[in-house]
Structures are given as C-alpha cells and as structure tokens.
Amino acid sequence: MHISSRAVRSFACLLLLSTSTLSPVLAQPGPVQEKPATANPPSTKPIQGTVAPGSASKVPWLYKGSDVPPDLEWNFGELSNGLRYAVRKNGVPPGQVSIRIRVDAGSLYETDSERGYAHLLEHMVFRQSKYLAEGTAIATFQRLGASFGTDTNAETSPTQTVFKLDLPNATPVSLDETFKLLSGMVTAPTLSADNLKLDVPIVMAEMRERGGAAKRVQDTMQDVFYKGQPLAERSPIGTVKSLQTATQDSVRAFYKRWYRPQNVVVIVAGDAEPAQLESYVKKWFADWKPTGQAVPAPSFGDPVAPADAPKGETPIGDTKVLVEPDLPPAISYATLRPWRQVNDTIVYNQGLMTDSLAQAIINRRLESKARLGGSFLTAQVNQQDVSRSADATFVSITPLGDDWKAAVRDVRAVITDAMTRPPTQAEIDRELAELDVAFQVPVEQRRLLPGSKLADDLVNALDIRETVASPEAVLRIFRESKPLFTPAAVQQHTQQLFSGTVTRGLFITQKAGNATDAALRQALAAPVKPDEQVRQASGPPVSFDKLPPIGQPGQITQSQSTGLLGIQQVVFANGVKALLWPVQEEPGRVTVKARFGGGYREMSPKDAPYIGLGQMALVSSGLATLGQDDLDRISTGRKMGFDFKVDDAAFEMTAETRPADLADQLYLFAAKLDMPRWDKQPFERAKAAAKIQYAQFATSPQGVLNRDLQFYQRGQDPRFETATPAEIDKTTADGFRKVWEKALASGPVEVQIYGDFDPATTLAALQRTFGALKPRDPAPVAAATADITVPKPSTRPIILAHHGDPDQAAAVISWPTSGGSIGLPESRQLEILTQLFTNRLLDAMREKLGASYAPYVYSTWPVDLKAGGSITAIAQIEPGKVPVFFQTADQIAQDLITNPPSADELARVIEPLRQQITRAASSTQFFMQQLEGATTDASRINSLRTIMTDYTETTPAKMQALAAKYLGKGASWRLEVVPQKDAGKLAKAQ
C-alpha cells in the first residue's frame, strides 16, 4: 500500500550521505520516492470490511494477492498484448490530464557494455519517432500548452524509465493527439545513427554537470554499500566508454529487449471521464506487437556477508574513508538485508507503520541529543528498500569537531538503548499522534490532490511492487491497528531494523589521515553502552490554554471588501492589517502568512552574517514560555508550521494549517513578534551548521553560484553575501538577539489567511493575537529609501573559482532591468521574452552544440524595490566553451532586437504560460503570493486583474521593443566560474 505521507515514508535524510545519492538521472530535474521500511509485521486479525487476498472474483491487477481495499476511483485494465493501464477522473487543476508511461527497465537491466543505455534511450525516444519528426517534440508539446522540463519530462532510475506529460486545457482533440504522439515515442522510436550522434553529446554534458565531489561520494557509496551487486556499478548516467561506443544496433537491441507491452503501464489521471481516457489507451497502444521472445528481468543480487562472518550476529563488512576537503564531514553506515517482493497486505502495512514508529522514536531522541550540544550536529536513521536490491537501514551522522569516533559512539549508544529496552507508551503515543494527523490531513484535503500527484504515486507504487489506497482506507487501517503498536512490538521492529546480512560504512572527511578504513570498521564494531538520557519523558502537559496572552484583544477599525474575488481587508487599532479569503473549495487547508518589518533593506550591512543565522535559528530560539522542545510538544498531533524567510522588503512567517489549528497557529506567529525567547543553543547550532556547509559551495560551479550570484546581482551589496566561517565565528548570541529583537519589533504587520476557515471565529482569533500586539514602529526611513545597487555593465567577466572537476565551468550573463509594483505589467511581458530566449538558448547550446545540458534564462523583478531586477542566462559547460556561451547569448539578444519573433515562436511560449497561470490560479496560494504587500500598496490588487492578459497578450513588435530596451549591446555584465587552476590565468589575462 503506497502511502505518500511523510510521516510513514521513512524520514528523509538531512545529510549529504543520504541514499538520495541514488536518485534517477532525469531528462529534466524531478523527484523520486522510495519504498518505506520492511520488517516482520505483528500478527493481527483482518481489518473489518477488507477482502482476503485472492477471494474477490475480479480483483484489479494491482491488487492481486492483497487484501488492501482497492481505491475505487482508479479503473484498471489490461490489453490483449499485455500492456496494463490505470485511469481515473480528477479535476485538480481543472482541465489538466496527467499521463505517465512507465517502462519496467532502468540501469539495472543493462549489461556491462550497455551502461547508460536506459537513460540514453529516454533521450532518443524524445528525439524522433513515428509521429514526430527529428527535433520537433519540444515545439510540438509547447503548441499543446505543455512547457518543456515541467509539464513534459522523463526520468530514469535503476529500476524504471518514466515518461511524463501534464497536458493543460485537455480537449478530446488534444488528448487524442497527445496519446498518438506518446504512443509513437514508446512503441516506434526512430533510434537512428543520426539520433545517436545528436543525443550522446547531450548525455555527456549531463554527466559532466552532475560530476564533482557529490558524484564521487555517490559512486563510492554505491561501490561500498552494494559491493557484489549490480547496483554497485549501475549508475543510470552510464560511463564515457559505453556511451561513446554505443551504436544504432546496440541501442535498438536494448530497446527491443525491454520496451515491450508486458513491461509497460500507462497511467492517466485528469479532468476527463475514465471511459474516454481508456479509449485513447486502447486506440493507440492495442496494436503494439513487439518482435522476438520476452526476456526475464535480470537478478539484482543480494547483499553478501564477509566470508569470515560469525553466525547469529550482523557482521561489519566493507568500510571506506573518502577525503573530500570541500565537503562537510559525514558518516553513513547501512545494515543491509535481501530485498524480497511481498504480498502487499494489511498485515504487511501494519509492519511498515511499526517500523516508522521505531524510526521516529530514535530520530526524536537523536535530535534531542544534538540539541544539547556535543559530538554531532545531526543524526538520523532511515530505512529504505533500495532499487529492489537491498532492504537497508541507514544511519547518517554529521560529526562536530575532529572526534568523529565520539559521534559514532554517541549515536550508536542511542540506537543500542532503543534495541535493548522498549520505548515508553508516552513516546509511542506522541508519534502515533503525529502519524494520525499525517493520515487525517489527506482525508480532509483529498479534493485538493492534483492528478499529477495521484499518477506519480501510482508509478512509485508499481516500482516498489505495492498497491495504492484511498486516504480514508489508510486512515482507517492505521486507527484500527493502534492496539498493535505496543512497546514490545516497537522494540522488536527496532531490533529487526538494525539486524541483517552485513553492515557497511562510509566516512567523508576533510582531512587526510583523520581516519582509516580499519578505524571506521572498529568504531562500528566496538561495544557501546546504551544511552538512556535522551529517552523522551512524558513531562508536564504543554497547552496553549496556559500560555500568556499577547495582550488585550484589539479593536477592528476598518473592514471592507477589496473588490477582488471574496477577499476582505481588515485593519486593527494597532495598525495591523489582514487580508482574509475564506474558500470552501479548499477543504481542510488554511495558509497563513505574516509579513513584517523591512527585510534585507532594513538590515545593516555590518549585521549581514546574522541574516542567514536568523533564517536557521530564529524560530527554534523559542517564544513566550516555549523552548524548542516545548514547541515540538505543543504541536504534537496538530498540523502547524513555522517557516521563516527574509525577503527584499519584509520578513515572512508562513504555515499551512487546518481550521481546527488556525487560532493556535496565529498565536505562535504573534507571540514570536511580541514575546520572543533567545535560547542560546539553537544559535550555536546554526553557527556550526553554517560553518560546516560553507566549504561545500566550492565543490562545483553551481555551488559557487548558489553562494555568490545574488551578491553580484545586487551590486555586491554585503547584505546578500554568504557569510564566511571567519565572519560567522565573530557573531555572538548577544549580537544575534540585538539584531533580531529590533527586526521583530519594527515595521508594519500584514497577515494573510486564505483557505477553509470561518470568518467570524478567525476574526476573533486575530483580535486576540495580532490585534493584541503593541503598536508597531514604522520601518526605518533609511531602509525604505535605501539605494538599490546594480552591477555596472561590462564585457569583462567576473572570475570565480571552484574546486571541482577540471572539465566543469559555469557562465552567467545578466542584463539589469527594474523593479516596483508599478512595473508589474512590464515584468510579465519580460517573462515572455525570457521564455523566447530560453528556447533559443536551449536549441543552440544543447541541441546544436551539445555544449550544455540545461541552459536557461530567467527574469527577476523585485516588487518591493524600484530597481534590482534582471534577465539572467546561465549554462554549465566545459571551461573552453565559456566564450561560446557568451557569444551565443549575445547573438540571441541581438537577434531579438533586430528581428521580431515569428507568430509560431511566440505562440509556443504564450500557450504554456497561459496554461501555467490558469492552473496556478486554481489555488489560493497563488493569489496569496501575488497580493503580498497589498494592504499598503493597493496597486497590487489592480495589477492582479490584468495578470492573464499581461502574460498572454503581446505582439512580435512589443517583444522586439522590450529586447531593445534591456538587451542592448553593452548593457550586460558577465560572470564565469572556472576550475581553481584556471582562475588565476584568466584574472591575469584581463
């Protein structure tokens, strides 16, 4: 039963050495999910209302051998050629149909000489096929309204290849055409020698851009953890040798072997009737008849114990120390067991839930120990079934200081305690409360689930050989299973999670000689005493009812309609303003945003290091009588959040909550402004994290851009510079409090509440919270009128260095534009221009030259500032091709000025933008973002009325005029990130 809840899916690793390093190679970036923990489940009686495995007369193919209640909204079928399909009606967002074609073939299906073929084939399928001429797929789908890289996508993992399309504004005509095109891609790709010649350089560019320290860690981890199994050497990207020696015949042979109807599932979810969707599948896939005999899937092997392993215990196998000076120190070890496909029954899923409880309890204890300070910054356990190759329990640790052995010992001591003594019922109840809300929320919000997610969930369930279930079924199974989750059962599952065939480890260290393979092996094998100190005591109850009030409930001085949709504006006597939009179409979801102060422009340049530390530590430093642990406890079993970020001209607190939790969510935000705490430990932990992370930026060109690009785009304003370890060392807890105490107290407050809530009770809650705040000081005058610096135009690039692979570089060219709400219509037209630019740059740098895998162009327009916007083009390329990028970008810019785009070229950009806006506007969160700051700038409300026309109505002449205004010769500045050895030479050459 595939459950997408973050609570039951094993908790995501926070560290670099998470098994996410095994994520698939994508045609464009996209997420991948893994199967949760497996262990022997507790025995139980069948859940009421379920069907015993195999007892139904007609069981859908997904549910054979399972007693999990079928999700009746899915309609399952199978064609006579063996192709299976699943379709369902879903109206979120309106008009969209999401199509997924899953092929049960990934890199683990390759032979040694075919390494990388599954992913290469994914590219070639898009290149040319029965109904698509060479190189026309992107333009064709754009004309249908689907943008490349978001709506049109594909991904290859070790176990599958998935082709993805989200078709907006689906009509019978466009659906029929889309299924025709996709069927031709999958059943009859051209796969010619010319296609191969074009796609291999693109894949090689992708390989180069994904290289560096992170790739070395990924390769080392696979080699160590899965030694003796194909997964150890089957990265989806392949090898240079296998890709360069690929031929038309060898690629076609791989296609013929695995692209067969029996290996393919077509999944469709969207705003159309199931019978209609089913008819397209039958029309375009029923005639697919592959040649030759079907080939059984290869064996993925099992983890292998050392030859001298003692019986009755989990032996320590291979360990490896990898020196990477620019990466944070990180330790990861895995206890591996053979993966076996099981019948996805309710009893099996009860075992998964027990596994998740066991992991959650350990992770909470590890977090508590880390908060106390000591040997490690973070640590986490995480069970995953990896690529149908191993059932593994991973432990990831970020040590502090040089005593890494203490970090390993302290983490293992917490785990050992969990294995030797059962948890308390109070600990179990706390995690059960978290799981309950995690399962309840999808029930409340099921009408909001987009078809794309439902389709992706089914793809992932197929990959891990599980079923899917409705949110109601999942919640019911969980709640009826609660008596099974006893301390003894959780302890038993803990023991199973840390027992297996072999345990293997990897240590990434910055210093050579800091550790050896043998020392790491010894640290993992050495006996440890159980650590009982961080067991979570029940403690006195923490209740909102006992927290101090913000103040006297505030009076409402003004309440009026904005004239837009049903959005109401309310003003309180203390100056706080609120925008309220109750929307019944979003059941169970309420989004709250509180904006205050002056953001970046309010901060003094000398206080710049505290900006980043505040984004990490301000929330966890506490409020009112609540420390970080108290904040965790008081929100147990509730859906509450506390995201914090710094914008150009405001600070923002954001959360997604539920109607029942809204009033208390408002209290948390208001209390942070009125009664902040300044606990020191979160600040010290944030300092440690910031210092550890800093060196990692230099490991790749993209890392350097993440660190420095905004700084240079803002004219080297020190407030936008990433603080160095030396600068972080100079910060103090007193300085942190001084900077952020002032920020929390200054500037106007705007609250937005959109979603499913009762206006009367919400207004009363606002009166008790934000309305009860003391009157606020206005934002500092200096901040409001601060000059916005922009880079000076120059054809001489700024040279930055990275420490990564010598064949990696990045090039940036940027044209300053403007900012401010008065220019919003023009900023939207600039988005059309940048999409035109992106299409041309992608065609030139990727398709024609094979020089960059994913070059792109984007526009920024700071609404709260009068300047600071830009049009920026970026590509990751080989160092020697940086001049080619600058030359190409200049040529495209000049051509946009000289020659207006054609009507077809413009339509290929406008239609996807139209569909993006249409789909986004089906969510209140879209309007929340567009109306930030509208309580003090009413023009933002008026500008929202024209958003569709601004993005979709233009002319070639207008695009030409915009290009002339901003992209003229001599208007840009440039930056390049090159290998360390080249940086000095380039600087001297300038």
Describe the structure.
The chain is α+β, with helices and mostly antiparallel strands and 990 residues long. The protein is built from 32 helices and 24 strands. The termini are far apart. The relative contact order is 0.11. The model is unreliable at 4-56 and 781-785 (pLDDT under 50).
Number of domains: 4
Contiguous helical run count: 32
Q: Helix/strand/pairing class, anyone?
A: alpha+beta
Mean pLDDT: 92
CATH superfamily of the largest domain: Metalloenzyme, LuxS/M16 peptidase-like
CATH topology of the largest domain: Cytochrome Bc1 Complex, Chain A, domain 1
Biggest sheet: strands side by side, in what order?
A: 1-5-6-4-7-3-2
**Spans of at least 5 consecutive residues with low confidence:** 4-56, 781-785
Overall shape: globular
Mind telling me which CATH architecture of the largest domain this is?
Answer: 2-Layer Sandwich
What distance separates the N and C termini?
A: 61 Å
User: Quick one: CATH class of the largest domain?
Assistant: Alpha Beta
- How much of the residues is beta strand, in percent? 15-25%
**Rg measurement, Å:** 28 Å
Instruction: Tell me the helix content.
Output: 25-40%
| Assembly level | single chain
Tally of strands: 24
The biggest beta sheet, please?
7 strands, mixed
Organism: Novosphingobium fluoreni
Region (Disordered): 27-52
Signal peptide: 1-27
Protein name: Zinc protease
